[in-house]
Known about the structure:
Blueprint: H1 5-21, H2 49-59, E1 64-69, E2 72-77, E3 83-87, E4 90-94, E5 99-102, H3 106-113, E6 118-122, E7 125-128, E8 132-137, E9 143-147, E10 152-155, H4 157-170
Amino acid sequence: MQLDIKTVVKKIAFDILILQKERVSVKLKLEKIKNGDDEIVIRYKKMNPTIEEIVNLTSRQKEKLLAKGEKGNTFLWLDDILYCERVDGLVFAYTKNKVYQIFHSLRDLEARYYRLGYVRCSKSMIVNIYKIHYFNSEPYGRIRATMENKEEIIISRKYANRIRTILQEGGQDEE
């Protein structure tokens, strides 16, 4: 199962935002076409870890996460998870219409999957920024994010500026 082109472009833009903070120069050029197949062309002077990561991102299979559902253990595609939340010491993953218990800490999820868009949004929650449909500023520096399933979550002020930067600079896409 391959990633769709919109998700790949968003993830590449997110990686470029991270690289800008690391002072690595990379250009992103998007070109909307009326006909033909979607394609990704990567131009580089020398292969480096950043280019390798982008190549891997465009060609790899989706990653899965072990979870406990109503009928027992199952695997969740990381791209299907909207956000993860810690409640009473347990961590739950929320998809469009189901909730699963997962066997990772929020710290572990953030460390492993940050480059896939899993970003801390409060002390007890990590959001998949690629699943945010739109967001609005709230009083006291918070953000109200509406997910793809129309569920709303609040991003605390401690993490709001970081998320704003990622969403405004790294998550822009062309409709």
